[in-house]
Amino acid sequence: MYVFDRVAVSLDGRQVFRDGQAQPIGARAFDILELLIRSAGKLVTKDEIMRLVWPTTFVVENNIQVHISALRKLFGDGWIRTVPGRGYQLRTPSQMTAPHAPSQELAAAKAVAGVITQRSWPLVGRDDDANTLYEMLQRGSLVTVSGPGGVGKTRLALSVARAWADSNHFQVCHVDFAGHSTQHSCLLAVLEKLGGAAGSNAPTIADVVQTVGDRQIVLVFDNCERVLQAVASLCECIAASNGHAVILTTSREPLRAMGERVHSISPLTLPEENAGEAETLASGAISMFFEHARASGIRFPADPGTLNVIADICRRLGGLPLAIELAVARAALLGVQGLLRELEKSILWLSGGLRTAHPRQKTLRATVEWSYALLSEPECAVLRRLAVFPRTFNLAGACDVISCADIGRDAALTSVLSLAKKSLLTLHTEGPVKSYSLLPVERAYAIERLMESGEWPCFRSRYVSSKDNAPANFAS
Ligand SMILES: Nc1ncnc2c1ncn2[C@@H]1O[C@H](COP(=O)(O)OP(=O)(O)OP(=O)(O)O)[C@@H](O)[C@H]1O
Ligand SMILES: [Mg+2]
User: Which residue is closest in CA terms to ligand 1's atom 31?
Assistant: First the structure.
């Protein structure tokens, strides 16, 4: 419960009380109020309000003012300040009485504001993943969301962390490790977010554990693939010392830490080739394309011809959310037909998403390179060679094709399994049969690298002859 003198707000119950009496409040006004509260006294811009509260509709500014003046009536003078031309600020509550909520966690409130920014576009096609993840948080204290680059790990983790924390009256602290490469800088980043201080110049895990204390907190350790060792040790120590804390990590590769539960996510669903209009529109990838276009103010006609082209674009991108986001931005300039023609040549050039995105997410090439840079030399060579498989392959068949004098069969097998763990290969399980494939974006990159190395003709012809000899090993 957040108390502002005579007014008390329960975010969980979506209720507002004045002098102890429940007050009527509309859903939109409450959404705006929630946004203001979670921003912990910071300015909330009109754009942020529009994106959060009306993500898919066009809203005139007057509409916001109507809700703000209703909130002002409720709160009384002096609580909600207008910053002319920019937005609004709500003073911090005089008291926070969330059950078990630790007293003054302003740093955590700041992190919650970060989560809200992430929520500004709707999360599409992830209901099942979100439910599974939510349940995993109920049961375990360390959960990792893993999956390929740009698949939506961060987006999903932040949404679920926020929902889970709200219902359990926990705080959320989000630390992004994408820009970090040492244990030292990771620990500093966590301490900074938690509002703690290092005991000496060199922060230790013990400093972080002490700062976390016995808070009821959800720690979202995001984008961990470059600092797996450091984060694994940190998570184990926090989990051992604080029985309440919940740690949700995202990484292209699981941490392999004690007690870790892993939830792997795949790209969004795609429509079958011969799907009807309703089925096409209902698939995750196509829904995201349209939601994103709407939110960005871009209109595409919804005739069957355009829909088919959009479905082809999403298939070519393998349903990868980051790729769809970039594709929408490009389709606005090239038209969907023009975009499809460009994608037929290559998909790696796609770029132009969020101005604030990390450099690894600015182009599809950069997103694969981020993973490629973390591979050993044999893993790089094996990934390149796997590009000769247009669809799925099984382990035995693949190892026959890609092993050579430089990489023996056992080494090839080890590398293929390691690539799968690092989310560079997709695992398909049908009954007892397991097969693998490369996502389109990874295959496009691997083809380029294989051509560059001069090995394409050799491995391509090995693939063709092995396919003729043992067709069961490969999908046609
Ligand atoms: N289900 C979704 N609905 C709408 N947008 C999504 C969805 N999933 C991801 N996105 C958008 O796609 C982009 C990439 O998502 P995100 O950053 O979560 O991917 P990631 O898997 O964490 O990538 P990385 O491995 O690079 O960290 C983001 O801009 C995000 O908002
Ligand atoms: Mg991420």
Answer: 155
**Cα(323) to centroid of ligand 1, in Å?**
9
In terms of DSSP H, where are the helices of 272-320?
277-282, 284-295, 304-316
Q: Could you tell me if 263 and 241 are in contact, meaning their C-beta atoms sit under 8 angstroms apart?
A: no
**Contacts of 199 by beta carbon, 8 Å cutoff, 6+ apart:** 206, 207
**Do 218 and 129 belong to one domain?**
yes
Asked if residue 124 has its Cβ within 6 Å of ligand 1, the reply is: yes
Q: Are residues 60 and 113 in the same domain?
A: no
Compute the distance from residue 202 Cα to the ligand 2 centre, in Å: 27
Let me know if residue 311 belongs to a domain. yes
Q: What residue numbers bound the domain in which 333 lies?
A: 277-355
**From the CA of 250, how far away is ligand 2's center (Å)?**
6
Regarding whether 398 and 377 lie in a shared domain, the answer is yes
* Spans of the chain, pLDDT less than 50: 56-58, 98-119
pLDDT for position 26:
80
pLDDT at 112: 39
pLDDT tens digits along 126-171: 989 999 999 999 988 999 999 999 999 999 999 999 888 888 889 9
Our count of domains for the chain comes to 4
